[in-house]
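hey can u check if this looks right to u? its 432 residues, i copy pasted from the old doc so theres a chance i mangled smth
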Amino acid sequence: MNNYQETLDYLYQQLPMFQRTGPAAYKNTLDNTLALDKMYDHPHRSFKTIHIAGTNGKGSVSHLLASVLQEAGYKTGLYTSPHLKDFRERIRVNGQMIPEQDVVHFVNSFRKKNETEKLEPSFFELTVTMAFQYFRNEKVDVAVVEVGLGGRLDSTNIILPEVSVITNISMDHTALLGNTLAKIAAEKAGIIKKEIPVVIGETQDESAPVFLRKAKGTGSPLFFADQEFSCPYSMLLPEGKQVFHVNRKGKNVYPELKLDLLGGYQRRNILPVLKVIELLQQKQWEIRTENIYRGFSQVVKNTGLQGRWQILGNNPLIVCDTGHNEGGLTQVVEQIRNTAWKKLHIVFGMVSDKDTDHILPLLPKEAIYYFTRAAIPRALDETELQARAEKFGLKGKTFKTVSDAFKTAKNNANEHDMIFIGGSTFVVAEIL
């Protein structure tokens, strides 16, 4: 393949891709990942890693950690998924996306090597290998690696990290991970490695015993970040950042910690980040307090993170957020409730494998809905979404495209209203 577009066509169309087709692309074994890792001579062994799993918040936690590590002077790789606009968002070094020619070169090298191996990897399996190979080539000091789905069988789970992180557990991907919080927690706990410290972001009754049992079995020091730190509230600053006061045992240990990511739910995400940094400092990593403050205040600039309570316009207020499961949308709705508006307009679409019966009741009944679908095969039909939503008292019209839905919402809203766009990462991606 000679150019970037041809390469993307191969990745998207020739390989099974969970984001577009759903569970059919999910592999219940690491065999392909291990074979690819061997094919490229184990690139992940060339740099240190931090591994991050969880149902919600893992993207924010990953970007926060990467930003702080960059500020501390470490050459930092960042692997996340899915992307919003450009495939290359998934693979960054010090915030810069992998160059197009490196994507082309890697895929060409794989196809040549695979003439004899005859592997049939998924999109995600090949992308993980691409990231690790690129990080080795770039000689990164450390890579922050976000789990794609679950943990135990995720392609990223071949690394031996400095610290493992599990942000929280909520009902999501139940067809693949299990239909109880304990079963989902067991899958996420699969990233806990022998004697490697693990940080849990939120203490939850159903998941905590699972993590404690697994960590005891592997001899891994276990820390619940929300039992060590507390951050009861945040305040919005005129400069468009929010400020936190983080306490430990009643003492203010991080006063006036500014963050350029909005959304009150970030007060939960910052706690595991602070605990990971503390553990790295104990391992003699050189991370100073000013690196933490600068890293927190410049996440977007340092890492390019988008789609987390992102304000796209004012008068009317236009906000998008990629929260798309029960836990994520609970936090988003709480944030909507804490925002001033006269009328609420919601541009909303979902993917077909989400549990609408658990998600739709969470949404505000007083909103005007613009039901739509993203341009992917996995999207839930907008008329089906509307029919399901009506059962829960949600009223609105249907639109065949996200852009039509958004345009109509803008035409209907006045300057004191709010337009929220969400329900699916892919709906947000089309607006951005």
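The chain has 18 helices and 17 strands.
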